Amino acid sequence: xxxxxxxxxxxxPILVVRNLTRVFGAGRSQVVAVDHAHLTxxxxxxxxxxxPSGSGKTTLLTMIAGLLRPTEGTVEIAGRKxxxxxxxxxxxxxxxxxGFVFQTSNLLESLTVCENVEVSLNLAGKGGRAAxxxxxxxxxALGMGQRLDFKPGALSAGEKQRVSIARALANDPQLVLADExxxxxxxxxxxxxxxxxxxxxxxxxxxxxxxxxxDRISAFADRVLWLEDGAFKDRLTGHxxxxxxxxxxxxx
Amino acid sequence: xxxxxRRNLLAEKLRLAIAIGGVAxxxxxxxxxQSLYYGFRSGAGDFARQFPASLWVVQPGIGDLARSSSxxxxxxxxxxxxxxxVAAAVRAEGRLQRISVDGHEDLSFVIGFEDGPATMxxxxxxxxxxxxxxxxxxxHDSIAHxxxxxxxNGRQLSxxxxxxxxxxxxxxxxxxxxxxxxxxxxxxxxxxxxxxxxPGSSPQEIAASIQAAHPDVSTLTxxxxxxxxxRAVDSFLPIISVLLAIAFLVGAAIVSLIIYTAxxxxxxxxxxxxxxxxxxxxxxxxxxSQSFIVSVAGFVVGTPLSxxxxxxxxxxxxxxxxxxxxxxxxxxxxxxxxMSLIAAYLPASRIARIDPATVFRA
Lengths: 252, 362
Prior knowledge:
heterodimer, A: alpha/beta, 6-stranded mixed β-sheet, 10 strands, B: alpha+beta, 2 domains
């Protein structure tokens, strides 16, 4: 069964985050992981969100992905407010609008490289030879054409991350969320993966949001945002910087 | 579609083999217990089905031959033989007896029929050339073999042939009528009078005539005898049901445990699939498919195995009587499918609890 992707308007920002807050626990054990964050990201932009461990980067990313419901605030992807959506609507959004690249590639070990990408297409309602052909085309474009029938266990960390990127792109998403995509890679492989993500953003006009500790990524980003104690701040002073909480240029 | 369920199962071949083996064993037990029940039930009624007499005159209250003792006046026989529609009325003595073979004792329902053309014809119907002569016995095949000597109430009898029918723990044997009277007959009484109707006459009408003339005796048609004898086997039904339930639960527990552990191991994969947009229903189908594949594979291995084992065992243990038809196999298949549905419950509930956000943790 084919599922229609949610409609989007090219002129809109791809991502609008308003007043996003996430509180875990209550009383004395209460933790504010994300604290009234604002963020607007345009199409084709590469945004790097940096910050110390426990600053709320991953919590912010999971809320943007619709995997975690915020305590307060809204997230809009391609003009659609995903906060307040039902689980099945969120599932549709993740299938069609968002691609994921994880820190560990999170490939399914029992499937081949090609099948790992096909699965993503299957979930979006595409099956059979067309799905296989699409998966092969994307993998070949990412330099994995010779590894289609390999199992992930037979791949290097860099190759696994390429397959992960291919899987993220399978359903032609407008927004790619990457969580520490270079954390497990050496400098050469890390650079290759970043070049790949950069070309995806620039050549295919997709938006890439990267969460990372890795300073080297900033060279590939259009904007670098510093998240600390759940809020975007000036990296040098540590003070809240309202000018960062919009579509303003970030820190370079 | 990418066959995630099949690939996950095949990724751990030893575990898959253990799971299929476990289900196959459960199916083997279910098929064997069920076919033993049907085998015993069918075997119990074989004698009455094969025997050409249509009516048994017995003491009131008697249901089947082996589990009850009937005593009726021997003097009724000539009177019944003269009734309209009756071709022959034959006296018979039958009793559950201890038979000793080489110092080993067994129980058998031993029956002897008065000699005559009707009895000769009856034994031919059962596949024998003639009824046993004095000093001879056709013994149940679980007790003795042809050519052996057996001892019954101090009498030495030669086994001239064997018989396979009867109820569990009381297979039928046939001996000479005079020997039977000497061994356990009572003067003036016989255990049964066996009535052979004339062609075209109704056993029910003959039965009504007998009971009208002699209200102190009762009659059993062959159909009633088959039914009552079958009930002897049905008395084991509660035990059989418990054994079947245990085998079913063992099979379901094995599948559930294997699929559950596989699900726990693959929790991250399921979290990734959820993050990528897989619905819970879709993931339930993955575990259900796994459960179904294991269960059906167990059925495919276990069913022929049970037939093979039953066939081999029957050759060495004749009382291991089994009977299976396609309906029974279909019932077992339905049980196996139910097993797969039950077994998928725990893994499915585990999947429902998996948080897709965990994929963002290294």
